[in-house]
Amino acid sequence: MIQNQEEVLPVVEASQEKTLSIFQLIMDGGLGGQIIMGILFILLVMAVYIYIERFLAIKAANKVDKNFMNQIKEQISAGNIDAAKMLCAKVDLPVANLIEKGVSRIGKPLEDINTAIENAGKLEIYKLEKNVSVLATISGAAPMIGFLGTVIGMIVSIHEIANAGGQIDIKMLSDGLYTAMTTTVGGLIVGIISYIAYNHIVAKTDKVVYKMEATSVEFLDLLNEPV
Question: By the 8 A CB rule, do 85 and 180 touch?
């Protein structure tokens, strides 16, 4: 009976040794791996924050009342230019800002009005794309930072082999291998998340830009209508 218990204990201990938490993997990766993983964590937090902030801002910018242009047409047709400006200022959205710029130029040549709307549109697009380029940078930089950790880990492993005098012990190489593997995985995860977030934000921004262009064309058509 005692012999059977002794045979079971090594099996239990072996199964416990194979179980490693993510935190333990990072801590076993040495100082270099911990620094790399810390940088990747900061980049991940930045990417998530920028994505959420831009997503909410673009979502709010896309909420335009369907009757907005009808109200603008009514005010312009009635000659109430100031009322149309006040309506645009009240809405305070990218589309409304474009129309407000056009309304303020009524009476001038259509080419000047079109130029003013285009310039206002560029400014609104710049506001919508605020910090989006940072997402693109993180999506490209994170995997490279992870690969940097991989190189550091391999250098540590080779250094340990050189100092071992030809006697290789897997435990001796564990720090370098942990650094190499965990940083690579961490970099790829942060890069993938950032890349998906960037493309989603770009797609949402394109929808707002399309709506801005359609509304500006509708406004110019309104001015071209015969009185």
Answer: no
